[in-house]
């Protein structure tokens, strides 16, 4: 029996990395999957590569008008939404003294405002018994050099799940958090991190390797499905032990 049969699932940032692996798994488990991509370039690429597998919608999650357009599309095409993996995010690191207001706003606009309105604007179309999985990070609860701003964005995301669990009836929408450790995705290239730095980071982990997107997808499936039926406002650290060192 597939775990997401008859479900309509949205994966923001489903064109890359953890989001793409999760979108594929949700699809394999029976869901109709909508993915978003942000820029013209990534949207066209995703449409070409995955247009016959997923419903690809160009959306910048930091723009509320884009989210409203996305949800109008989902409502008219599917009539409902059952699962959201609020995954779209950016990571930038800088020593605190070098953080500019633009750097700060950019991170918060995508990672905090983006996640907030991805959920807030979906509430009217979320079916009873929906699940929302928020993608935070192990650094939401751990010091990490250069990540004061990014970590704060992810701490905010983690807290959204707690507040919404208190505010919104759990039998209506169940919120939980996936907090990955370092996972091998394009995000490191976008941050400009050299390969030797990645290798050093892997060596410092208790598990001695970076995680794979597919390993996060399995946790994101658990949290989206009835397998996690008694979890509400919970956080799963999928971090190879990074939070312990
Ligand atoms: P990727 O860079 O592979 O994917 C990031 C995704 O987010 C892309 O699909 C990107 O879309 C999308 N995105 C970024 N900004 C926006 C925006 N404003 N609107 C819509 N989409 C946007 O990285 P990961 O798969 O690694 O990251 C996915 C999530 O996991 C992020 O939230 C990240 O913070 C979190 N995470 C990742 C970790 C890791 O080590 N990889 C560790 C902990 C957490 P596009 O390609 O169109 O720009």
TrEMBL record:
Q: Does the keyword Oxidoreductase apply?
A: yes
GO function term, MF aspect, one: oxidoreductase activity, acting on NAD(P)H, oxygen as acceptor
Gene3D superfamilies per record? NAD(P)-binding Rossmann-like Domain (3.40.50.720)
**Classification via InterPro entries:** NAD(P)-bd_dom_sf, SDR_fam
Tell whether Signal is among the UniProt keywords: no
Among the Pfam families in the record, one is adh_short_C2
Keyword set, alphabetical order: Oxidoreductase
Superkingdom to which the source organism belongs = Bacteria
Family listed: Belongs to the short-chain dehydrogenases/reductases (SDR) family.
Protein name (Swiss-Prot/TrEMBL): SDR family oxidoreductase
- Which species? Peredibacter starrii
């Amino acid at each position: 029996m597939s775990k997401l049969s008859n479900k309509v699932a949205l994966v923001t940032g489903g064109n890359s990395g953890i989001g793409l692996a999760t979108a594929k798994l949700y699809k394999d488990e029976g869901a109709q999957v909508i993915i978003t991509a942000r820029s013209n370039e990534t949207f066209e690429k995703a449409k070409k590569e995955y247009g016959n597998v997923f419903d690809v919608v160009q959306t910048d999650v930091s723009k509320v008008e884009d989210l409203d357009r996305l949800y109008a599309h989902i409502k008219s095409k599917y009539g409902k939404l059952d699962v959201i993996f609020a995954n779209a995010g950016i990571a930038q690191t800088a020593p605190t003294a070098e953080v500019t207001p633009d750097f700060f706003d950019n991170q918060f606009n995508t990672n905090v405002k983006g996640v907030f309105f991805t959920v807030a604007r979906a509430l009217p179309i979320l079916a009873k018994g929906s699940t929302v999985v928020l993608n935070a990070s192990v650094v939401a609860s751990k010091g990490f050099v250069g990540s004061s701003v990014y970590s704060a964005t992810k701490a905010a995301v983690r807290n959204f799940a707690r507040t919404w669990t208190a505010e919104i009836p759990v039998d209506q929408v169940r919120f939980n958090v996936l907090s990955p450790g370092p996972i091998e995705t394009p995000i490191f290239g976008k941050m400009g991190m050299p390969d030797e730095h990645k290798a050093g980071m892997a060596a410092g982990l208790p598990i001695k390797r970076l995680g794979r997107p597919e390993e996060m997808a399995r946790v994101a499936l658990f949290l989206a499905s009835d397998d996690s039926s008694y979890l509400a406002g919970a956080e799963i650290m999928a971090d190879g032990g990074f939070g312990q060192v």
